[in-house]
From TrEMBL, chains A, B:
<feature type="region of interest" description="Disordered">
    <location>
        <begin position="215"/>
        <end position="237"/>
    </location>
</feature>
<dbReference type="InterPro" id="IPR036388">
    <property type="entry name" value="WH-like_DNA-bd_sf"/>
</dbReference>
<dbReference type="InterPro" id="IPR000086">
    <property type="entry name" value="NUDIX_hydrolase_dom"/>
</dbReference>
<dbReference type="Pfam" id="PF00293">
    <property type="entry name" value="NUDIX"/>
</dbReference>
<dbReference type="InterPro" id="IPR054105">
    <property type="entry name" value="WHD_NrtR"/>
</dbReference>
<protein>
    <submittedName>
        <fullName>NUDIX domain-containing protein</fullName>
    </submittedName>
</protein>
<dbReference type="InterPro" id="IPR015797">
    <property type="entry name" value="NUDIX_hydrolase-like_dom_sf"/>
</dbReference>
<dbReference type="InterPro" id="IPR036390">
    <property type="entry name" value="WH_DNA-bd_sf"/>
</dbReference>
<dbReference type="Pfam" id="PF21906">
    <property type="entry name" value="WHD_NrtR"/>
</dbReference>
<feature type="domain" description="Nudix hydrolase">
    <location>
        <begin position="1"/>
        <end position="149"/>
    </location>
</feature>
Length: 237, 237
DNA sequence: TCAAAAGTGTTCAGTATACACCCATGT
DNA sequence: ACATGGGTGTATACTGAACACTTTTGA
């Protein structure tokens, strides 16, 4: 029986989060330094070979956890890349994209600094300042960012970056960072309030100015509508 | 080196077109009767194993041509399905979805009838009246239809079903069939005219009533915006 | 002349946008 | 008190939906 022998299947994930830097909040993602050929010493998306007993989405979740020590707030398949010449050997990569909550990333980083147990060969990069990448991973990241910017317009994926409770200004800052442009605070407030995806709490974030009400994501709804695929993605087996 | 050995890669395509039947225009797709286990004698999406020298999109275009004798007016990757238990052996299917022009399908069918050279084991089914399918192909088709219905709202994929020249009523009928609901002719006209994706010709379709102006798709624009992926999909090598 | 589809005009509601303005807090 | 961000009000423009109306053909 003729099979697709000689083709290997890999799973990689573009793991996105927002990080507060000296240049404000920026989109960032963790990359892994390759230790082997091809592209030894180059940075690449976290991932690995798909094993015989693991679903692709499970492999994505696993490598994500291995790389970051965290669980994603959102995980969706991006695309299957399979051009013949994208790797010296024949590799089809099923690529996922994921969102991490900023606070969890920060907490994890602090923990790593405290314990000195940070993973080797993993580093966070700003999405707009990437090093030379292995394979076609630069184009893959470009597509992942396009998908994120697209989806932020008609879904609530931006909430995947934020902690349990957040102010509308924080949510707006997340969206502004993703889109790369400023939004009118008044209109943003009304739009997101009327969307019904937020639950107002009785708490307020007290800071330098008038306290801002804290909101939380409504728990019943998905961050994005994935149609009939919801069940598939859900079952990480 | 540990590879994903034991995993085979297949490429399948949900090939969609509109066909005029006794119950009006309906979404239809060609299925292939399987001749081997597993699921022998069941109907399945056209496809085959990914070969070592072929890009996935090329394999999709090839099997599409082998099944229908036609070239698609639109071809896009749908999803990579890889659940462990979706097949007795471990198979990852990269699934595409494609649109065929109705007139080309009709012409091809007439040709087959004339010459008696219709492909064996291929049959067209109405999308809302499918037989029991092999593997997870029923869910795959459901997802392809969801994607089509979704995309028809913010792109001009519906034009992929129509011939070079068509009336606004024909375009509207296509959209109505996809969405499963009637649209206001007046509003539809204005929306599609203001979108700038159509070019009015000087010809008219003469029929039972007032002649309707013929339009053609503007050639410069894609049927749908696929962002940075346009180049990938284009290169069918 | 009449039925029916092609095509135009108009109204109305909902939504995006711009921006003026008031509110509540820390300094 | 005042600067600053939180939060409300409002005017305007645009868009989608509903529907009345005119035009043009074949029968």
């Amino acid at each position: 029986m003729t099979r697709s022998s000689g083709i290997d299947v890999a799973v990689s994930t573009a793991i996105l989060t927002l990080r507060r830097t000296d240049r404000g909040v920026v989109l960032s993602l963790p990359l892994v330094r390759r230790t082997r050929e091809p592209f030894a010493d180059r940075w690449a998306l976290p991932g690995g070979w798909l094993t015989a007993t693991e679903a692709p989405v499970g492999a994505a979740a696993r490598t994500l956890a291995e790389t970051t020590g965290l669980a994603p707030s959102y995980l969706e398949q991006l695309y299957a890349f399979g051009a013949v010449d994208r790797s010296p050997s024949r590799v089809v990569s099923i690529v996922y994209w994921a969102l991490l909550r900023s606070d969890q990333v920060d907490a994890q980083s602090a923990e790593y600094r405290r314990t000195g147990l940070a993973p080797e060969n993993v580093r966070w990069f700003d999405a707009d300042d990437l090093p030379p990448l292995a394979f076609d991973h630069a184009q893959i990241i470009e597509y992942a960012l396009w998908r994120l910017r697209n989806k932020v317009g008609y879904s609530r994926v931006a909430q995947g970056f934020l902690p349990e409770e957040f102010t509308l200004a924080e949510l707006r800052e997340a969206v502004e960072t993703i889109l790369g442009r400023r939004l009118d605070p008044a209109n943003f407030r009304r739009q997101v309030e009327s969307s019904g995806t937020l639950i107002a709490t009785d708490e307020f974030r007290t800071g330098n100015h008038r306290p801002a009400r804290l909101y939380r994501s409504s728990p019943d709804a998905e961050l994005a509508d994935r149609g009939p695929l919801s069940s598939e993605e859900m079952s990480i087996r």
